[in-house]
Amino acid sequence: MTSKDLSKTLRYRHFIFGILGIGYVIVYFHRLCPAVLAKDIMRDLNASGPLIGVLGSAYFYPYALMQLPAGLLSDSWGARKSVSSFLLIAFIGSMILAAAPDALWAIIGRVLVGLGVSVLFVPFMKVMSEWYTTREFAFMSGIIIAIGGVGSLASATPLAWMSSLIGWRMSFASVGIATLIIGALIWRIVRDRPADLGWPSPEVHIQKEGPAIGLWEGVKRVFSHPPFWVVAVWIFFNVSVFFALGGLWGGPYLMEVYHLSKAGAGHVLSMLSIGLIIGSPILSFLSNRVLKGRKPVLVLCSLILMPLMYIMYVFVDKIPMAMLYVIFLAIGIFSGSVVAVGFTMAKELFPVSIAGTSIGLINIFPFLGGALFQPFLGYVLERNGRVNDAFTLRGYQQVMLIFFLSSLIALIAGFFTRETVKRQ
User: Fold this and answer.
1) pLDDT of residue 122
2) Angle, nearest 10°, between helix axes 262-285 and 134-154?
3) C-alpha to C-alpha distance for 409 and 268, rounded to whole angstroms
C-alpha cells in the first residue's frame, strides 16, 4: 500500500461516515417521534392507550427481527445496496402513516418504517470495520450512538414545532421524503470497503488469518455462550426505560401530569437526546481510559438509573420542573447512551470473525424491550382508567414503578457480566 492511496482512504471514509450518520439521525427520529405526537394521533385516529402502544411498538418488532438478517445482508449483498433499498421501504411506510385513515393503517405504515430503517445500524458498523481500524472502532461506535441522539433531539422540540405548523400527517410525510433523499445519497456516496474504489484498507496490516466461521455456526456460538445472555438481559431492561419513556409515554406523561404544552413536553424530552449525545463519547472514554473496563460502566449506569426511577415513582407529580430536566438528561445518559458500551462488550466476548453476528444479535434486545414495554405500559395506563380523556395519576405511578423494577433487574444483571477488557 502506498501512503498516497492510504490517504485517499482516510479522507473518503469521513464522507461515508457523514452520510451514514445522517441516515442514523433519520433512524432515531423515526424511532422516538411518537412521544411528541402521541396525543394528536390518539385524538385523530380515535385510538385507545393499548392501541397507541401497539402503534409505537410496531416500529420495534420488525427492527428487532431484522438485526440478524441485516448482518447477513451486509455480508452477502453489501451495506450500500442493503441500506439504500430498505430506506425506500421506510419512505413508503412514512407516506402510508401520513395518510392513514385509521389506527390499522397507521400501524401498517409504522411497521414498514421499522422494517425500512432496521437495515442501517449493523451495516453502518460493518462499513466502519472496513474503513476504520480495530483500535478506532470502540470510540466510533460511541460517536454513532451520539449521532443517533441528534435524531432523538430532532424528534422532540423541533418536531413539536413542525407539527404545530403543518400537522402530524405532513410532518411524517416530510420525514419520509428526507428518508428517500438520504437513501439516494447513500447509494451514490457509500462504498462497502476501500477495495471497491481500488484503495487499501487501513486494517489490512493487522488482520489475522484463521478458519472461516459460517453464519449459523456464528449464531450458535453466540447463543450458546452464557455471558452473552447476561449482557442481553442488562441491555433489555436498562435501555427499555429510555425507549419506553422517550419513544412514546414520556410525552403524554408530561402533558397530562404536569400540564405542559406539546412544545413544553418537547423541551423536556429533548434532554433525553442531549444525554444521548454527550453521554456516548463520555461513557466510551470512561470505559476505555478511566475505569478501563466495560463492566464498571454498566453497573454504574444502572446504579444511578435505579434511584432516579424511584424518585419518579414516589414523586410522580411533584417533581420541580428544573429537576425534571435533570432527570430526563440523566436517563438519556445512563439508560440510552450507555448502550454503546454494552454493544462493545458483546462484540469483545467473541472472535473478531463473528463480531458482526454478535452485534446484530445483541442489537435485538433493546428493541425487543421497546416493542414489549410500550403496549404493556399502555395496557397498565388504560387499566387504571381515564379522567377527562387523560390517564390517571395512579396509572403513571405504576408505570414508574415498572421502570424502577426494570432498572433493578438491570443492576443485578450488570454485576454478573463478564469483563472483556484485558488488563495489563
Assistant:
1) 85
2) 170
3) 26
Q: Which of 366, 289, 326, 360 is nearest to 122 (CA)?
A: 360
Q: Cα–Cα distance between 324 and 19 in angstroms, integer?
A: 34
Q: In the predicted model, what is the mean pLDDT of residues 7-15?
A: 85
> Tens of pLDDT along 186-239?
999 999 888 888 888 776 544 444 556 666 787 888 899 999 999 999 999 999
> Each residue of 360-382: pLDDT tens digit?
888 889 888 888 898 899 899 99
Grid coordinates given for 12 = 473518503
- Comparing CA positions, the residue from 256, 254, 266, 242 lying closest to residue 373 is 242
Q: What pLDDT is attached to residue 328? A: 96
**Cα–Cα dist 128/140, whole Å:** 8
Q: Give me the pLDDT at residue 390, please.
A: 86
Go through the domains of the chain in sequence order and give each one's CATH number: 6-194+215-415 (1.20.1250.20)
Q: d(Cα 386, Cα 197) in Å, to the nearest integer?
A: 60
Q: What is the 3-state secondary structure (H, E, C) of the chain?
A: CCHHHHHHHHHHHHHHHHHHHHHHHHHHHHHHCHHHHHHHHHHHHCCCHHHHHHHHHCCHHHHHHCHHHHHHHHHHCCHHHHHHHHHHHHHHHHHHHHHCCCHHHHHHHHHHHHHHHCCCHHHHHHHHHHHCCHHHHHHHHHHHHHHHHHHHHHCCHHHHHHHHHHHHHHHHHHHHHHHHHHHHHHHHHCCCCHHHHCCCCCCHHHCCCCCCCCHHHHHHHHHCCHHHHHHHHHHHHHHHHHHHHHHHHHHHHHHHHCCCCHHHHHHHHHHHHHHHHHHHHHHHHHHHHHCCCCHHHHHHHHHHHHHHHHHHHHCCCCCCHHHHHHHHHHHHHHHHHCHHHHHHHHHHCCCHHHHHHHHHHHCHHHHHHHHHHHHHHHHHHHHCCEECCEECHHHHHHHHHHHHHHHHHHHHHHHCCCCCCCCC
